[in-house]
Amino acid sequence: MAKTIMIVDDSATLRQVVGIALKGAGYEVVEACDGKDALGKLDGRKIHLIVCDVNMPNMDGITFVKEMKAMAGYKFTPVIMLTTEAGEAKKQEGQMAGARAWVVKPFQPPQMLNAVSKLILP
């Protein structure tokens, strides 16, 4: 059975680019346009990994990761932050919230797929 990855980004274009790369690698994809939308989609279904932007309206990525990690069913779901933020302070904030990897945009799909394959839950 295919593993499911959630993409959380306010850019529809970016969700599409990431989605194409992930689907091409055999993953199922769930899309959310911001942290609030993403939390609403964490409805008990199995999500094997989340790729999340940092800067979004309504709820930013770091707040989303903190709230998601507080949910029993998603506490151990790995998160890759995919963002234009390259600063150390933001990276540390993301790691403290529970993000496992940090990929800076613009990114190469193989680089992201490599991070996904290393972190995705069995």
UniProtKB/TrEMBL annotation:
It comes from the Bacteria. The keyword Phosphoprotein applies. InterPro entries: Bact_response_regulator, CheY-like_superfamily, Sig_transdc_resp-reg_receiver. Residues 4-120 form the Response regulatory domain. The lineage of its organism: Bacteria, Pseudomonadati, Pseudomonadota, Betaproteobacteria, Rhodocyclales. SMART domains: REC (SM00448). It comes from Azoarcus taiwanensis. The modification 4-aspartylphosphate is found at D53. Keywords: Phosphoprotein. The keyword Phosphoprotein applies. This is Response regulator. GO terms for biological process: phosphorelay signal transduction system.
